[in-house]
Amino acid sequence: MSAESLGIIFAPSLICPRKLAPEAMQDALATQSKAVAMMIENSGAVFEVPRELADDVAHFWRVMEDVLDGSKSCEDRVNIRKSMVRRCCGD
């Protein structure tokens, strides 16, 4: 299927407000389906996860496994979260 066809199928489920009158939904469908088609066509750029974030998340889950098996404390988990926030948002 083309990105446009997938946009028509998925737009009502993905980005249509729940409490929208049927007439308004019909009017908005063209714009919404184009937006979903654009996301599909450019999925590599739209949904790319920055390498640093992927590394931070992987490290966080390694620490969490250590916390669960008892080899690290919950304090280590808190420090990892603070480090991730600092890297993302600055000090």
How would you summarize what this structure contains?
Residues 1-47 form the Rho-GAP domain. This protein has 91 residues and is mainly α.
Strand content: under 5%
The tally of helices reads: 5
Distance between the termini: 46 Å
What is the β-strand count?
Answer: 0
The stretches of 5 or more residues where confidence is low (pLDDT under 50) are: none
Quaternary:
single chain
Average of pLDDT: 82
Give me the Rg, rounded: 20 Å
> SSE string, helix = H, strand = E?
HHHHH
| Helix/strand/pairing category | mainly alpha
Q: What best-fitting shape do the alpha-carbon axes yield?
A: elongated
The helicity comes to over 70%
| Biggest beta sheet summary | none
InterPro entries: Rho_GTPase_activation_prot (IPR008936), RhoGAP_dom (IPR000198)
Organism: Dreissena polymorpha
Protein name: Rho-GAP domain-containing protein
Domain Rho-GAP: 1-47
Summarize the structure in words.
There is one protein chain. The protein is mostly helical and 91 residues long. 78% of the residues lie in helices and 0% in strands. It has five helices and no strands. It has helices at residues 3-14, 22-41, 43-46, 51-69, 74-89. It is elongated. The N and C termini lie far apart (46 Å). The model has no long low-confidence stretch (mean pLDDT 82). Residues 1-47 form the Rho-GAP domain. This is Rho-GAP domain-containing protein. It comes from Dreissena polymorpha (Zebra mussel). InterPro entries: Rho_GTPase_activation_prot (IPR008936), RhoGAP_dom (IPR000198).
